[in-house]
Amino acid sequence: MTKYDRDLSRSSQSSPTTTGNPSENFEGCNTDLLEASLQAHDLANHSQKNVSMAKLYESGTWAKYEQRAKSLARKHPSRDPFRAYLICDEHGTFLSSNSRQSYRSALVRLAARDVLELAPPLWHQILNLAAGEDKKRDLERTISAYIDGETWDHIQQASGNLSNVQLRKLERAVEFIITVQPDPDHTALRHRSRQPSSTETKSGSSTSKNSTLYKLNQHQRRRAKVLSAYDWRSHFWNAAVMSDTHLDDRRRACIAAMMLTGCRPSELCDDLGVTVDAVGLEENQRLAFEIAGSKCIESGAIHPGKGQERRYIEIVCKTPEAAWLFDHVAEQPDRAVRLFLGAPTYDRKGIELMATERRRRVSDQLGKLIARLGKVAFPRLNCNLSPYVFRHALASDLRASAHQFNRCGIASALGHQSEKTQQHYGSPNTSKGLNGSRAVQITHVSATSPVRAFERARIGQKYDATPE
To answer: For the segment 286-321, what is each residue's pLDDT rounded down to a tens digit?
Structure first.
């Protein structure tokens, strides 16, 4: 029994409407509850269209859903997460549309579970309480019109009556899943529950990263009037990364990899990692990167993943961080190194952490490190440097050099499975005319999966994105 179930049990025991014989509570409300539960059962099955509950349990996502429900339950006097969500949604108190969507997904799944578990015993109880054979046959025809044979078997196998706590739990789940219906294909528009002011920007949003990149590029334009060869990334590397005596070579190499390839910080977690090979000598120094993607799903799923499983990037060393990384890798055995940062396997209570949580912790670790180094390199610049700014900067460089890479090549370099995703990364205009483009170093890009073309006429084009 979860904490929410225990709270619900206490509230049900103290409520005058849930005392007495359970069968007495059915009189006068059978018809409405039956129709609502049948509709809710159909919606609950629809929620499993793409990902089953078994898969959610196996992946550890279900534990995350329960944590979200507990955090919402604390915001309601009766510890009801469903009511808490509806109130927050009505008043627009969610911090962002992503926050709202994460709670929505969790509670829809939890409500679907309650409906699938408790609806068949409810129907069994209603059939047993039916007055007369004719009434029972009518109810059987009504129920069988909405369910399949497997669910009917569950009804026949049900025994006993629902307790008052179970009945109240089912009523709340039915009410919620009918009000907030499942959207397994994510086709519904995610409206913003809170419109930020003109001076407010969410730190984790793409708008914030693009705003930071714009400020850095403007800073570079101003400094280039005095120092024509100045570029902010080289300055960051020399003034902050190389001069920091607290940094070890492993973290320096991870920062260099993010600057050169635009890899996600979560891809530097120890269960993924970035493999780097030093190729060539002297004036022909090159680095070959193999990046394990952090945004992909298992093969064979109904819908393709959000990212490439693996991508390969090869560069020539023309920038200071590339030259340093080449020397660092060339000193290693076999002239190769696997870059990663460790994350704890268990939390403080001894519970094993999910892969997504471990990657989040690595991202936070790198985020704090880059923010600290950013303050050292740009003390007067009013912005927060983050690992994703390097990713947006590379995307901006790639999009500005359209003659070198097509849209498919840019998607492969960023680890996307669709050409359309790159429109959220950088802007081709912000980096035009600036020194220090990291795209000019890239000589080859490829990925393990085909890139979905943005235009239908381009579907089927080759996804080995060697520069044209």
So the answer is: 999 999 988 875 444 444 557 888 999 999 999 999
Pair 239, 398: CB distance under 8 Å: no
Going through 167-322 in order, the beta strands assigned E by DSSP cover: 274-279, 286-292, 310-316
Asked if 363 contacts 230 with a C-beta cutoff of 8 angstroms, the reply is no
**Model pLDDT, residue 426:** 65
> 278 is written with which tokens?
């030093």
Rounded-to-integer distance, Cα 431 and Cα 368, Å: 25
Strands (E), 162-301: 274-279, 286-292
The strand pairing partners of 418, in sequence order, are: 452
Residue 91: the pLDDT is: 81
- Cα–Cα distance measured from residue 250 to residue 234, given in angstroms and rounded to the nearest whole number: 19
From first CA to last CA, the distance across the chain in angstroms is: 60
Look over the chain and give the mean of its residue pLDDT values, rounded to a whole number: 79
Edge-to-edge order in the sheet of strand 336-339: 336-339, 274-279, 286-292, 310-316, 442-447
Could you tell me the pTM of the whole model? 0.59
Torsions phi, psi for 445 (to 5 deg): -140, 135
Cα 212 to Cα 122: distance, rounded to the nearest angstrom: 56
Residues 356, 362, 364, CA angle at the centre, nearest 5°?
100
Neighbour count for residue 229 (Cβ, 10 Å): 8
